[in-house]
Amino acid sequence: MNNVTKTLSAATSCAAKLSGPVIYNTKVAGQIAKQVYIREGMAPPSGAQFEAAKEATTKFLKSARSANTWKNISKDQYLKAGLVAAEAYTFFLFGEIIGRRNFVGYDVESADSHKEHH
């Protein structure tokens, strides 16, 4: 029991030492984000912008059914679309790595160890 108390005491001490810098850095990051938001003139989209995006998406989806639409797209547009797709896939992969807390695979028990529980 004494080892548990020492371990908890050490963990609490370590957390207390780290809490100050973590809180400070979080506040600094928040202030930087606020300055960027103001300087770039960022704002949430308005209702009119949502409607315009909805109409543009609907128009694109209707025209995407036509083969002529795809023939009229330039090589640069295909390249840009490929780069955007690669970027989205990369973000997906980073999310997977963060979610798994591992670079490769999930930490799953083997089927043999599962049979022991039944």
Mean pLDDT rating: 83
Termini separation:
32 Å
Percent in strands: under 5%
Estimate the helix proportion, in percent.
over 70%
Helical segment tally? 5
Q: Segments where pLDDT lies below 50 for 5+ residues?
A: none
H/E series:
HHHHH
Shape: flat
How many DSSP E strands?
A: 0
Oligomer: single chain
Cα-based radius of gyration, to the nearest Å: 26 Å
Question: Given the helix and strand composition, which structural class is it?
Answer: mainly alpha
Protein name: ATP synthase subunit G atp20
GO biological process, one term: proton motive force-driven ATP synthesis
InterPro entries: ATP_synth_F0_gsu_mt
Subcellular location: Mitochondrion membrane
Please give a handful of descriptors for the protein shown.
single chain; 118 residues; mainly alpha; flat; transport; hydrogen ion transport; ATP_synth_F0_gsu_mt; CF(0); proton transmembrane transporter activity
Overview of this protein structure:
This is ATP synthase subunit G atp20. It is a single chain. The protein is mostly helical. It has a domain at 74-118. It is 78% helix and 0% strand. It has five helices and no strands. The protein starts with a helix and ends with a helix. The model has no long low-confidence stretch (mean pLDDT 83).
Characterize this entry briefly.
The chain is an all-alpha fold and 118 residues long. The protein has five helices and no strands. Belongs to the ATPase g subunit family.
